[in-house]
Amino acid sequence: MTAPATIREFEERLAELAGTMPKRLRQCADFVAANQDRIAVSTVAEMAEGAGVQPSAFMRFCQIIGFSGFSEMQKLFRDSYVGGWPDYRTRLKHLRETAAGSPVALLAEFTDAGRTSLEGLLKTVEPAELEKSVGLLSEAKMIHIIGLRRAFSVATYIAYAFERMNVPAMLHGAVGGLANYQAVRPGDVVIAISFAPYTAETVAFAEQAAENDISVVGITDTVVSPLRPFSAATLSVTEVDFGAFRSLSATLGLAIALTVAVGAARNGS
């Protein structure tokens, strides 16, 4: 198997092979999919530690993808990094060192992480997928929105925006274990939002919709996201984290663009 020549080829191969990998290598796949920005600046030991595996297992993962080893995979990402990948790690490290722990420093750190996430949004969202999403949603009889846990605020905002623009939409939740899937009818479209670690209820909702020939627009993060197989269109967004926390700056930016575009299309603008 030849090595992927581009990041796009790498992502496609990762998505193709991830489901067939044993547990340890799947850990590598999940970690790499969620942290592609770290490959260019990390050692194989650091990547292995992040994935929770031994370096030898991570090397084996690189070989299964088609590389001779970690160095060859890293070179692919370093070439892309030189082309404009933001070095957010260096900036956040500087902020931590100069004013660690203060409220002002935390504000600066999360602002910087949010800015970087927004800058990366145009790289992760495929224009064709965005156009397809708007087309599906603008023709839907009813738009059903589901996003739980961290994604709930995004789902709620989309529902609110559609309400203000007189776009028929329904927000689904999981109160009492009730998904209200019976409200979905032929001609409707589902927006499903979930990020790693993925919410089982959201994935199940999308799966049931797809099985019943209901189009799904997925808003998710990695190329191995379980939402992708059930989505007629997928909008990819990656949030830069600070510590164990991730804001929703880029995700909400995408949500605003999507809802306004759909509202404009439905109102003939």
What report would you give on this structure?
The mean pLDDT is 85. The radius of gyration is 20 Å and the shape is globular. The strands form two sheets. Strands 2-1-3-4-5 form a five-stranded parallel β-sheet, sandwiched between helices. A two-stranded antiparallel sheet has the order 6-7. The chain has helices spanning 7-18, 23-34, 44-51, 55-65, 70-82, 88-99, 103-124, 127-138, 152-164, 200-211, 249-266; strands at 143-147, 169-172, 189-193, 215-220, 233-236, 241-242, 245-246. The chain has three domains: 7-82, Arc Repressor Mutant, subunit A; 88-124; 127-266, Glucose-6-phosphate isomerase like protein, domain 1 (Rossmann fold). The longest helix is centred in the middle third of the chain and has 22 residues, at 103-124. The N and C termini lie far apart (49 Å). With 269 residues, the chain is α/β, with parallel strands linked by helices. It is built from eleven helices and seven strands.
SSE order and pairing:
Layout: H1 7-18, H2 23-34, H3 44-51, H4 55-65, H5 70-82, H6 88-99, H7 103-124, H8 127-138, E1 143-147, H9 152-164, E2 169-172, E3 189-193, H10 200-211, E4 215-220, E5 233-236, E6 241-242, E7 245-246, H11 249-266
Helix pairs in contact: 2-3, 2-4, 3-4, 6-7, 7-11, 8-11, 9-11
Keywords: DNA-binding, Transcription, Transcription regulation
Pfam families: HTH_6, SIS
Domain HTH rpiR-type: 8-84
